[in-house]
Design goal:
By secondary structure, the chain is an alpha+beta fold. The chain folds into two domains: 2-70, no CATH class; 97-271, no CATH class. It contains four helices and ten strands; from the N terminus they run αααββαββββββββ. It has helices spanning 2-10, 14-23, 35-70, 124-136; strands spanning 97-106, 109-118, 154-161, 166-174, 185-190, 202-207, 211-218, 223-227, 251-256, 263-271. Helix 2 packs across helix 3. The longest helix is centred in the N-terminal third of the chain and has 36 residues, at 35-70.
């Protein structure tokens, strides 16, 4: 019997639903109802609840649809798919992120200092492939580095070049613990030549993100001040500046001494972005 009622209830037409709603108020029984009336009433109330639920669902669906349309440009009733966040592309493990740190011309010869940063491989197999790719770029690490040494680490190489030849200055890996702040400084001084010894005229260094100025002092007593490159404008690599490098957690600078002298000392002389008057 209950099954038949359910079947009948679900086969109701819109007209049946309307009549049930219209007659609901007339069938309210006041007082103590007989047992049989409670059972019958329960079935009737079940039918009415189904009808009201159906009507409520329609109203909510209509309200939802109306709100959705009102929120759409043009209101054409088209429901836009939920916005999804695009997946972050996997880093290129076999091509370095190359940033030029400084350029110039001396005695008619162009020179450049650049850094290559290699993304961290996740597996030893990826690291082996990266080592092979490094060789193709001339970035193969020295000292018997194995693929396992590179897993989970970003490798970097800084070099000075004057045409087809180049000279390495920094060669290492970045780790999660590599942080620099305040007046922290690390430098390398090399001859201004790719394959011969001579006065160490070229200073290349790394500093923290808040270093505002570096001062290079030369053996003849002169100094070169290098300021941080402004963030809101492009600074030519011909202009000495503290600048970021793609993939590097620290910033970089380059100083070149005048001819006839060489590097003596280097220091971070300002922390922050407010520069003193020259």
């Amino acid at each position: 019997m209950m099954s038949a009622d359910r079947e009948t209830n679900h086969d109701m037409t819109n007209g049946d639903i309307t009549r049930l709603l219209a007659g609901a108020a007339d069938e309210v029984e006041i007082g103590i109802a007989p047992y049989e009336a409670v059972i019958r009433g329960g079935r009737r109330r079940k039918a009415r609840r189904w009808a009201v639920a159906a009507a409520t669902t329609l109203v909510l669906a209509g309200s939802s649809a109306t709100l959705a349309v009102a929120g759409l440009p043009g209101g054409d009733g088209t429901v836009a798919p939920a916005a999804t966040q695009s997946a972050t592309p996997a880093p290129d493990l076999f091509t370095p992120a190359r940033t030029t740190l400084a350029t110039g011309t001396e005695n008619g010869k162009e020179w450049r200092v650049a850094i290559d940063v290699w993304a961290a491989p996740r597996t030893e197999a990826q690291a082996a492939g990266q080592l092979e790719a490094m060789g193709g770029y001339g970035d193969a690490p020295a000292g018997g580095i194995k693929a396992s040494d590179l897993v989970g680490k970003r490798s970097y190489l800084v070099y000075f070049s004057d045409g087809d030849k180049r000279r390495k200055t920094f060669e290492d890996v970045f780790t999660k613990d590599d942080t620099m702040s305040g007046t922290d400084l690390q430098t390398a001084s090399i001859p201004f030549d790719t394959d011969t010894d001579g006065p160490e005229r070229l200073v290349i260094g790394m500093v923290g993100k808040k270093a505002g100025q570096v001062t290079c002092t030369w053996e003849d007593g002169t100094k070169t001040k290098v300021d941080r490159a402004p963030e809101d404008e492009e600074t030519s690599t011909d202009t000495p500046a503290i600048r970021p490098a793609a993939g590097s957690p620290v910033d970089w600078f380059v100083c070149l001494s005048p001819e006839g002298t060489s590097a003596k000392s280097t220091a971070v002389t300002l922390v922050g972005t407010t520069l003193p008057a020259r």
